[in-house]
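User: structure tokens for this one?
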Amino acid sequence: METTYRGVATLLGDPKKAILKLSTPMMFAMLMQTLYNLADAVWVAGLGPNALATVGAFFPIFMIILSFATGLGIGTNAVVSQKIGAKDKNAAENAAKVSIILVLILGGTITILSLLLIKPALMLMKLSDEAFQLSLKYSYVVLLFTVIFMFTNIANAIFRAEGDAKRAMLVITTGSVLNIALDPIFIYPLKLGVLGAAYATVISASVGLWMSLYWFFFRRNTYLNLDFKKTHLDFSILWKILVIGIPASLAQLSMSVAIFILNRFAAVAAGAKGIAVFTSAWRIINFGTIPMLGISAAVTSVTGAAFGARDPEKLEKAHLFAIKLGFIIGISVMVIIQIFSKQIAYLFTYSKDGSAIFSDIVHALVILSLFLPGTPFGMFTSAMFQGIGHGIKSLIVTVFRTIILQVFFCWLFVNILHIGVSGVWWGIVIGNLTNAVVAFNWGRSVIKKLRQSHGQTNQNC
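Assistant:
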């Protein structure tokens, strides 16, 4: 009876097929989300530099806020999938409902705090008076709907945990496509300017939220029954969610901090030109990691279910297959970037002034693309650690790559060896490669211990 739901059957079946079926919808969803972010910037750019600065100033602040929801979503995904793997549906439903209550409380608290603190936070950005006022108005609109963004993140985590990545994809894709369509209407014909972009964002997010609420509470055709009247909630599971979720949130924050530091190294090596080259090239590298992000989400669900089922062999198969798949994708994207580096660079340098950094972006792309093949070894090992509930290990893998290794090698090449802005690109690549070797071997060691422990348990039985 536990496998009557197709998503759960996939989750508990062949781990290779599960990785493929769960990751493909998430790849598409993340691609659409990336396209939305790009389109949003393009539409706002038509209003002038102040408008673009308005959204740009708020974006990192909002990413910090959403990192809490992302971390909580990862914790929810891992624990719910573990309980489904253990064939304890009641515990899985309890974990999902506890997460929903937590995100409502956390979302409400963050909304109040962010509304109180957004003004001094934006003042630190040193914006012009016009850009500051626009950014403040934009922020107030979006922040009022913080709970919606956070709840949708948790809902998608629950869908993924029960093997239903298609619904998570539909929520994300619908919101992204709707936002792309509403942006130009609200900004230009309705003459709402930057506020129009904010309204388009919250309306699109609200539609995604109502899709999730409809499936969970009205149509009730999900595997998990989230009827809060059904059973008494056990909040003891909250700790398991937080043990994974808090480190995952910190990992998200560490990546933001690392990008800031790497920007500084690029500035030290080549001034504003270095920052322009880095941010342009890094957008392409991030675009190349979209398939891996989709696979990573699948790894957490599949390894979590295997861990809950006490099946370390299936867990190991899922981990290794995902890495092989990610490595092939990484190599393929790297080759494409290497071949078309000049054409890609032209996208950022078609203006008269931009042509001055054309060759620098080409050079950066050629080196930074080497980052991609090694990424799955660390990223998917981190996702596996989250799946089995080892949140601190996952955090260590991320921090070791972002804050320690990449920053160290950039410092070594730029400040000590004085090889210029190329040192930043090589520092990122070598730091990532070193982390890949260390993280992968650590992951293999942990899985080996799980297999030994499982073997001893079977002998005792």
